[in-house]
Amino acid sequence: MTTLFVLDVxxxxxxxxxxxxxxxxxxxxxxxxxxxxADGPIVIDRRATGCRHAVWYSCIAGVAPGGAxxxxxxxxxxxxxx
Length: 82
Known about the structure:
Elements: E1 2-7, H1 13-20, E2 25-30, E3 33-38, E4 42-45, H2 46-49, H3 53-58, E5 60-63, E6 67-72, E7 76-81
Antiparallel strand pairs: 1-3, 1-5, 2-3, 4-7, 6-7
């Protein structure tokens, strides 16, 4: 399972909402974090979130062991199992 943690602040809400649009991805809460998880890769399109670049590049709080960020650029965030 691939798991991404994003701090639950108003600026990052769109990241969780866009991730939740993928039926293979589940979004929950753990403490002050959105927990975004999937059996396969997690891919979030930056433009779909409407996030400005500064927010986009600072939204990641962490990745659970066994996962790795394989793309984090102006187009998308991709987290995959390693």
